[in-house]
Design brief:
Chain lengths: ~200, ~200
């Protein structure tokens, strides 16, 4: 080993020792063990897929999972087909009325939202579920299809050990306040805007 | 129906018609069908889970998938256990040396990175794979464990139909340039900073 390389190795090791110290210290300071509420918001690609990645994570431990999807198109997308066909142990419910700009029917949408919410509310009251995903719930709040206070109460009062993932743009400051972790997925660029079609198995 | 409600319904319908027009127009203008490269970056929670959600999406259509993980801890996390145990059809390779701040050994890390890259390179040259995930690849570039140009060439020259997801903070402007879609996951807040422990089935 040359002197130069030896020095580089040593300086690397020193930096990594410091980094490890910092990381270990912050791991130690986190000591509260309970279910968490995660809000995935923002205008970028990756919110729903991230929620489904956490479903896979939970299933890896044999956890009990419920997925409730608000809005969504009339056709099942890949991850939904997978859940339906490969994961009968997951409770899976989809509003399935199509996007609200397709239905163009406010009263019909509200009725469907209420029906879907009833399924969500049941899961949020059932401590058997380790993980509940409420995909695109935020739109139900921004369109005022659901009563905000009722929704926030149910999220807040869920079982202590239950984790929860909520996805969708917006959702309001009270939802963000209630969440333990909030990630904003920002679109830096999107293939779509370059004329590339949405891709099966990646985009839907 | 009162006049007020009727008016509200009508105004809603008008707004939704306009929205549908805009959405339909942009769908129509996207006409190029090919595999896409997606970069999930930023400091927030949700990058790896989003990549695994896309794996589930692809599996829903029976697509062929390869997942190569750079860095990562010595214990498999939930989604990795799931892939290993439930998805033998997925090619899954993990560098598995632990985080670089744990190993504190630069030469050893570089050798492991090279070995892992060889697996990635093989998948990127094999048009059987519909989707390739390179989890935490960006750190290999920022630590200069891998030759940047060699990596960029392999990503760029992958089969036309193959989609690719790269995750990790940073990664540099050339990688972002090469990607079709870039999402930056921003940490707005994290449970961790409130003293809440990382949660099994959600965080790992």
């Amino acid at each position: 080993m040359t002197d130069m390389t030896a020095q580089k190795e040593k300086s690397h090791q020193k930096k990594m020792e410091k980094l490890k110290e910092n990381i270990d210290a912050s791991i130690e300071s986190a000591s509260l063990e309970r279910g968490v509420c995660i809000l995935l918001t923002g205008n970028g690609k990756g919110k729903t897929s991230s929620a489904f990645g956490m479903v896979m994570r939970a299933l890896g431990y044999g956890h009990k999972v419920a997925v409730v999807q608000f809005i969504k198109g009339e056709q099942l997308s890949g991850e939904e087909l997978y859940l339906r066909d490969q994961c009968p142990q997951v409770k899976f419910y989809q509003m399935g009325t199509g996007f609200t700009w397709d239905t163009q029917d406010r009263s019909g949408d509200i009725a469907a939202a209420e029906k879907t919410w009833a399924v969500a509310e049941e899961a949020l009251a059932d401590k058997q579920y380790d993980l509940v995903v409420l995909d695109e719930l935020t739109y139900m709040l921004s369109f005022k299809y659901l009563d905000k206070q009722r929704v926030l109460n149910a999220l807040q009062n869920r079982p202590f050990e239950q984790s929860l993932v909520v996805t969708g743009r917006g959702g309001g400051s009270e939802l963000a306040e209630l969440a333990d972790t909030v990630s904003e997925v920002k679109e830096i660029k999107h293939a779509y805007n370059e004329g590339v079609m949405a891709r099966k198995g990646v985009d839907f």
